[in-house]
Every structure is written in structure tokens, then in C-alpha cells.
Amino acid sequence: MVQETNDPIFSSAIAIRRVTPLYCRISFPDGTFSSDTPPEYLTNVNWFKDGPPEKGSLIKVLWDDGMEYAGTYEGTTSEQWEVSVIIV
């Protein structure tokens, strides 16, 4: 939730936690697109050790049907964070 203020000056804050899940955006050769693929479904990327792949990277996705499909990594969905404003 964004707190509106009449003061347009930015304030310092501490990120407390991410409040939205992180999903990958993937395009597939058949023209379909997914914007809700969990990072752990990428089989040729160790997301938690190496970080996310570069945008445009060819990746493999383990789908719900147990099959592995090739796709192109297009980034992640937007993240929303809970923050605590630091009052100076």
C-alpha cells in the first residue's frame, strides 16, 4: 500500500519483506506466453545459486504435465514490498 503525501520528497526506508510472489515471464516458440511460472520450474537455471538468467536467454521449463519445454526468459513480474519509513 502506498501512503500518499503532499510532500513530493522521497524518504529513506527499509525493505521488510516482499509481499507478492516472484514469477518468471516466459515466451514459447508456439507464440504462447506465461507470466506466472515459479523460478523453481526452470530446469537449466540454478536461480537461487546463480541468480536469474539474462533477459532473452533460452531456458527449459518443467511444466505441470511433467514435460520439459524450451522457452525464452523475458524477466519477472513486478515485485511489491512492505517497507518501513525511516523518520529522521
Describe this structure in words.
The mean pLDDT is 84. The longest helix has 4 residues, at 47-50. The protein is mostly beta strands. The chain has one helix and six strands. The strands form two sheets. Strands 3-2-5-4 form a four-stranded antiparallel beta sheet, with no helix packed on it. The chain has a two-stranded antiparallel sheet with strand order 1-6. The protein has a domain at 22-77: Vcp-like ATPase, Chain A, domain 2 (Roll), CATH 3.10.330.70.
Describe what is shown at a glance.
With 88 residues, this protein is mainly β.
Q: What is the overall shape?
A: elongated
User: What's the number of helices?
Assistant: 1
Strand-residue proportion = 35-45%
Classified by CATH, the class of the domain at 22-77 is: Alpha Beta
List keywords for this structure.
6 strands, mainly beta, 88 residues, 1 helix, Vcp-like ATPase, Chain A, domain 2, four-stranded antiparallel sheet
Topology (elements, then pairings):
Elements (H helix, E strand, L loop, with lengths): L12 E6 L5 E4 L5 E5 L9 H4 L7 E5 L5 E9 L4 E5 L3
Antiparallel strand pairs: 1-6, 2-3, 2-5, 4-5
